Amino acid sequence: METLFALLPIVLVLVGFALAALFWAIKSGQFDDLEGPAYRILHDDDDPRIPFNRQREQGREEAKDGDGEEPRDEDRPSGS
Q1: Fewer CB within 10 Å: N-end or C-end of the chain?
Q2: CA dist., res. 50 & res. 68, Å (int)
Q3: Rounded to the nearest 10 degrees, how much is the dihedral formed by the CA atoms of 25, 31, 32, 34?
Q4: Model-level pTM?
Q5: In this predicted structure, what is the pLDDT of residue 10?
């Protein structure tokens, strides 16, 4: 019985932390878009707002200005 009285406050504190973490996650928007990241991988990456694509497009423009040809694959920055 003494063990029960000792464990009960500990359990209540842990439940309080779990509820606080849950409400924080809900308030900060962690559960707003559950499907977006799964579909984002399927979208085309030719968006110029993506920094890598912006650099790649600038490289193409510089190559066209230089000799009038598109850069070869080995001249383009790698995606890794």
Answers
A1: C
A2: 25
A3: 150
A4: 0.45
A5: 96
